[in-house]
Design brief:
With 303 residues, chain A is α/β, with parallel strands linked by helices. Helix content of chain A is 25%, strand content 30%. Chain A folds into 2 domains: 159 residues, HUPs (Rossmann fold, 3-Layer(aba) Sandwich); 120 residues, TPP-binding domain (Rossmann fold). Chain B has 258 residues and is of the alpha/beta class. Chain B folds into 2 domains: 209 residues, HUPs (Rossmann fold, 3-Layer(aba) Sandwich), CATH 3.40.50.620; 29 residues, no CATH class. Classes of the chains: A alpha/beta (303), B alpha/beta (258). Bound molecules: flavin-adenine dinucleotide (FAD). The site of flavin-adenine dinucleotide (FAD) has 29 residues of chain A, from helix 6, helix 7, strand 16 and helix 8. Chain B: Keywords: Electron transport, Transport.
Chain lengths: 303, 258
């Protein structure tokens, strides 16, 4: 099958996740062609055809315009699949392209299956197989689900002119907040999730962190609710960590959280739900109420 | 300013999910439902905008589904929406995002909303498609994954969340649609007086057949738990025993206990 891969470029750089698209195409045994809004100086290591629009002229974020450029390439190449990374760029653009083509879209694919695509659902607890019924399909792949592959070579570049227009004006980037705590350096991280129940209980998790000589981490809802400061957040929109010991207290294990901590040497999870997806990465899953187990563990450590 | 907020009712995600008879989605028996978390941020933002604009504005909440979704609708009304539209659909869980977006667009096209809020995705399906598809079908500007929002003189400034905590700021004119991300605001709890007031607000019921003209473009052929990858050790039982077991494991397997 012919596949149009949509590469990613941000703040002047080709993003590494672009290579995961080749990983997908390789597994699917597809013939890849790439499109990207990027730069001559940042070409992907790929010997096939690349349709390139200049980010300086088109803007790194201009969905109306990027959609139009993609539709033009689709018309020329007539691909069976149009594949994006499931990222803030991909999930924003893919549905626009799918509607314009009236093509089925399958989001956040984790594997290619007989007759369809496997996707996660119910916060990672379950899976679905989705089967598109349109001749053309728009797909977004889960970040990290397909191993990145650098095909090697230099692309044959077709330059695309910027057609102009777009109804949205990009104002600029805002850098990530300063990190007060560098979790990446910690040997032990004990993280509080929504399962701790309320702000007052965070102190109990922090006490375990202290007893283990580590830092306090947190899942996103705990940060959004202002129970813990943002610089403690672990995950795709927080910090990526790999301590010797990671303790997840009342954290379900959503993909965005796992992405930030699954490389830890040893993962201990405490959850009252033994089916929680955190169990997929945990070395040990303690099935208990965090508010009973954690203070008991801290007390025993103090002895 | 005419404002629409679209919400979905989802099961409590701490539930155990069993496949239904056709093995295409979960069995609904014994599940407790609530408003999709991302949509709570959407409702809160819509209500804040409604309050800023005062009585020249009007805020409608819309939900598609069987009778149970009226619970989520009532919560949105108690948070401050003016009226509700319940699109009655017993088969909502078999619809694909394209059909859901088509149903909403068939309703929204007639009513010419200046601003539409949706969640960035649902917690159960997680496709992150409906909002952007709806905008595309209506031909309005759209920002997804929004963690900052303001609207002045018909210009929306939206802060999109990108990977690694970086944000992208963009501007667009109304009519527009934004899909709301976690952390956009702190959703309010409905107060008792507002819950009472909400009881008098209008809920317009529309049969889905009046609005749905599209076939699905994709079908679910299987619903199942993920394959277990070996997995870790499960420690169950009495708290004191669990503590002893965990301490022994930490001593044996990690270098952090000295
Ligand atoms: C674009 C995007 C980016 C994101 N980035 C991040 C990120 O960087 N980091 C992040 O963490 N999330 C991120 N998220 C959110 C993520 O999808 C989840 O919503 C979040 O990680 C859930 O946090 P949680 O596990 O604390 O809460 P929940 O999912 O609500 O889980 C709570 C858990 O606690 C358990 N529990 C409840 N009570 C108890 C008790 N008394 N004892 C023991 N266990 C209990 C429950 O069984 C459940 O498993 C992002 C989402 C999106 C869409």
């Amino acid at each position: 099958m012919k596949t149009l891969l949509i590469g990613e470029f941000r703040e002047g750089k080709l993003l590494d996740s672009t290579y995961e698209l080749f990983g997908f195409a390789g597994q699917a045994a597809d013939e890849p062609v790439m499109f990207m809004v990027g730069s001559e100086t940042q070409l992907p290591s790929f010997g096939g055809r690349l349709y390139l629009a200049d980010a300086a002229a088109c803007g790194e974020y201009n969905p109306d315009l990027h959609k139009q450029l993609i539709l033009n390439v689709v018309q020329k190449e007539n691909p069976d699949r149009i594949v994006f990374v499931h990222s803030s760029y991909g999930w924003d653009l893919a549905p626009r392209v799918a509607v314009a083509l009236k093509a089925a879209q399958v989001s956040e694919v984790v594997a290619i299956q007989e007759g369809g695509f496997e996707v996660g659902c119910c916060n990672g607890k379950m899976r679905r197989i989705v089967k598109p019924s349109t001749p053309q399909t728009v797909i977004t792949i889960q970040a990290g689900a397909f191993q990145g592959v650098q095909p090697g070579g230099t692309p044959q570049v077709t330059r695309l002119a910027a057609p102009g227009g777009g109804t949205m004006e990009f104002v600029g980037y805002e850098p990530a907040e300063e990190k007060g705590v560098d979790l990446a350096k910690a040997e032990v991280i004990v993280s509080a999730g929504r399962g701790v129940g309320k702000k007052d209980n965070v102190a109990i998790i922090a006490a375990l962190a202290k007893a283990l000589g580590g830092e306090l981490g947190a899942s996103r809802p705990v940060v959004d609710a202002e129970w813990v400061a943002h610089d403690h957040q672990v995950g795709t929109t927080g910090q990526t960590v790999s301590p010797k010991l990671y303790v997840a207290c009342g954290i379900s294990g959503a993909i965005q959280h796992l992405a930030g901590m699954k490389k830890s040497d040893f993962i201990l999870a405490i959850n009252k739900d033994k089916d929680a997806p955190i169990g997929e990465v945990a070395d040990v899953l303690v099935v208990a109420d965090v508010m009973q187990f954690v203070p008991a563990l801290t007390a025993k450590l103090a002895k | 300013m005419k404002i629409l907020v679209c919400i979905k009712q989802v099961p409590d995600l701490e539930s155990r999910f069993k496949p239904n008879a056709s093995n295409t989605w979960f069995d609904e028996a014994d599940l407790a439902y609530r408003m999709n978390e991302y949509d709570e941020y959407a409702v809160e933002q819509a209500v804040q905008l409604r309050e800023e604009c005062g009585d020249s504005s009007d805020l409608t909440v819309l939900s598609i589904g069987p009778d149970r979704v009226v619970e989520a609708i009532k919560k949105a009304l108690a948070m401050g929406c003016d009226r509700a539209v319940h699109i009655q659909d017993q088969a909502v869980s078999s619809r694909d995002p394209w059909q859901i977006a088509s149903i909403i667009s068939a309703y929204a096209r007639e009513h010419k909303f200046d601003l539409i809020f949706t969640g960035m995705q649902s917690q159960d399906r997680g496709s992150a498609q409906v909002g952007a598809m709806l905008a595309e079908l209506l031909g309005v500007s759209c920002a997804t994954t929004v963690v900052g929002f303001s609207c002045k003189d018909n210009v929306v400034t939206a802060k999109r969340e990108l990977e690694g905590g970086v944000k992208g700021v963009m501007r667009m004119k109304t009519p527009a649609l934004v899909t709301c991300q976690l952390g956009l605001n702190i959703p309010r709890y409905p107060t008792l007086p507002n819950i009472m007031k909400a009881k008098k607000k209008e809920i317009i019921a529309l049969p889905v057949a009046d609005l749905l003209k599209e076939e699905s473009l994709a079908k679910t052929t299987s619903f199942h738990p993920p394959a277990k990858k070996g997995g870790g050790l499960l420690v169950e039982g009495d708290i004191a025993d669990q503590v002893d077991k965990v301490l022994a494991l930490l001593k044996e397997k990690t270098a952090v206990l000295r």
